[in-house]
Specification:
The complex is a heterodimer. Chain A is of the alpha/beta class. Chain A has helices spanning 44-50, 81-86, 102-112, 118-131, 135-138, 151-163, 181-194, 207-213, 231-236, 241-247; strands at 6-15, 18-28, 33-37, 61-69, 72-73, 88-91, 169-173, 199-203, 216-221, 224-230. Chain B contains eleven helices and no strands. The chains are: A alpha/beta, B mainly alpha. Chain B: It is a multi-pass membrane protein.
Chain lengths: 252, 295
């Protein structure tokens, strides 16, 4: 399968008069994990939610700039938002499985996108759960409610759900911050696995996590990208004083 | 005064008020049931009323009440769901939609006798529907519809935003997201609200006096052709409901046992409305469990 990345040009986001993200340009390479770090309110989550046009849902929110995937600017008004979102998966801070069975959580998307064959759906469900390292724990109770799973399992189910529709890119908004350390470790392992196929953009508050899972890191401050570089460089040899202050815990 | 004493006084006052409410309710229910239940029998529930002789029943009235409720719900539920979905998910938030919301609120608080008179002038006379179940159902729709709209809107607004976003992020259309993800979650709220609204429709009298009418043709319960004038299923026949019947025999009943009939009918009405309430709570809890916990 061919891997795709994403290029963001001069993206700004405003809620009414207040600018939350200012002229951000970033390049997300395929088969790489990019971490977005920064103090609360620095605009990193807002930026992430703009990448799959989720901010369209919020009244008074305007997003300007260009977001390129596969030679298409997805931030242009002509883009079909519904079909675009199939190419960009998303995982939220708190696990949000549908109030359906484990099987239905995964099969729901592919079925809507045209896979009606029961056998094909079964295969997609198994493959997605295997990729999310959840198959062994759930294969005997696929038709039980997803809400009976633990928080960590629910989060892996949400990841499985998003890869079931075969996206190019997966956006993760602090995917482990509501989980215990063991579940967090599993999610991080999973991210390392998934990066072989997808371009992953992850927002995180946990700097150790950013250092562990990502290839590149962007440091956000007050809606702007202060520094964007290879993760080891950011954490060992940052070029800007603000970055250094933040990663050494002097603020944020 | 010490904070602890104030707290104690406030707590006892609140408990006293709560106890008073429970007592009044229990007394009212007890009085109606004790007076009426002795008169309720299978014969009473199934036979036709008598005008001047003893031993009449409430069969047709009970049937009319249920049939009218079904008709009202058939009209209200699709329109109410549709309007509620529109108000919650599609309507932009501006002056016009705020005005619509206000009108909906006002509509549901119009006194029911006014709705009845409106029904008489517009539905019965102007549109020529006559005194009929259909006129009655439309009159009831006037204050049932706002409730349905509000219930649906609140149910959908109560769905966590992440659920909606998760579905949209998979590339599902807005409509599919509403029908497959949001409505199932909102369903317990919507269903409970609908049943409670149904209880109100079932007990309504004032709006029906001038719309569904105060008499029933002699119903032939073996004739199920909805077009025949004596068929119970004909929606264009006049139909006296249970609540209207209670009002009528209490004010102008000629039968020697009018008092007991009114008491018995009241007990039946109260029990039915109570059943609606219990069913609503049970169903709401059952569906909540079904949608959230292990199957």
């Amino acid at each position: 399968m061919q891997a795709f990345g994403m290029t963001v040009n001069d993206l700004s986001v405003a809620y009414g008069d207040r600018t939350a993200v200012k002229n951000v340009s970033l390049d997300f390479a395929p088969k790489q994990v990019t971490a977005l770090i920064g103090p609360s309110g620095c605009g990193k989550s807002t930026f992430l939610r703009s990448l799959n046009r989720m901010n369209d849902l919020i009244a008074g929110c305007t997003v300007t700039g260009e977001i390129w995937i596969r030679d298409q600017n997805i931030n242009s008004p002509e883009t079909d938002v519904v079909s675009l979102r199939q190419r960009i998966g998303m995982v939220w801070q708190r696990p949000n499985p549908f109030h359906k069975s484990i099987y239905e959580n995964i099969a729901f998307g592919p079925r809507y996108h045209g896979t009606k064959n029961k056998k094909q759906l079964d295969e997609i469900v198994e493959e997605s759960l295997r990729k999310a390292a959840l198959w062994d724990e759930t294969k005997d109770r696929l038709h039980n409610s997803a809400l009976a799973l633990s928080g960590g399992q629910q989060q892996r189910l949400c990841i499985a759900r998003s890869i079931a529709v075969k996206p190019d890119i997966i956006l993760m908004d602090e995917p482990a911050s509501a989980l215990d350390p063991v579940s967090t470790a599993k999610i991080e392992e999973l991210i390392a696995e998934l990066k072989q196929d997808y371009c992953i953009v992850i927002v995180t508050h946990n700097m150790h996590q950013a250092a562990r899972v990502s290839d590149k890191t962007a440091f956000f401050l007050s809606g702007e990208v202060v520094e964007y570089d290879l993760t080891p460089t950011i954490f060992t040899n940052p070029q800007r004083r603000e970055t250094n202050d933040y990663i050494t815990g002097r603020f944020g | 005064m010490k904070a602890k004493t104030v707290d104690k006084i406030a707590t006892s006052v609140i408990i006293a008020i709560a106890a008073l409410i429970v007592l009044v309710l229990a007394g009212l229910l007890g009085y109606i049931l004790v007076r009426g239940l002795g008169h309720v029998s299978f014969h009473f529930l199934t036979s036709a009323p008598e005008t001047i002789r003893k031993g009449g029943g409430i069969g047709p009235q009970l049937f009319n009440s249920i049939f009218l409720l079904v008709l009202t719900m058939i009209i209200t539920i699709p329109i109410g769901l549709g309007a509620g979905i529109y108000m919650s998910e599609y309507a932009p938030s501006n002056k016009l939609t705020n005005a619509i919301r206000l009108v909906v609120e006002v509509l549901s608080s119009v006194p029911s006798i006014i709705v009845g008179l409106f029904g008489l002038l517009v539905l019965v006379n102007l549109f020529g529907f006559g005194f009929s179940l259909f006129s009655g159902a439309l009159a009831l729709t006037v204050f049932n519809l706002p409730l349905m709209v509000r219930i649906t809107e609140q149910g959908l607004k109560g769905v966590p935003r992440e659920q909606k976003e998760a579905s949209l992020a998979l590339g599902l259309s807005k409509w599919k997201t509403i029908t497959s993800v949001m409505l199932p979650i909102a369903m317990p709220v919507i269903l409970t609200g609908t049943i409670l609204a149904a209880g109100r429709v079932f007990g309504e009298a004032a709006a029906l006096l001038f719309t569904a009418g105060m008499s029933s043709p002699r119903l032939d319960f073996s004739d199920w052709n909805p077009l025949s004038p004596f068929s119970p299923l004909n929606p264009f026949r006049p139909a006296e409901t249970l609540a209207v019947h209670i009002w009528k025999i209490n004010s102008e009943g000629l039968a020697p046992d009018a008092g007991e009939i009114a008491a018995g009918a009241s007990a039946v009405l109260v029990i039915t409305v109570l059943l609606f309430n219990f069913a609503a709570r049970w169903l709401g809890r059952y569906m909540y469990r079904k949608f959230t916990a292990i199957k």
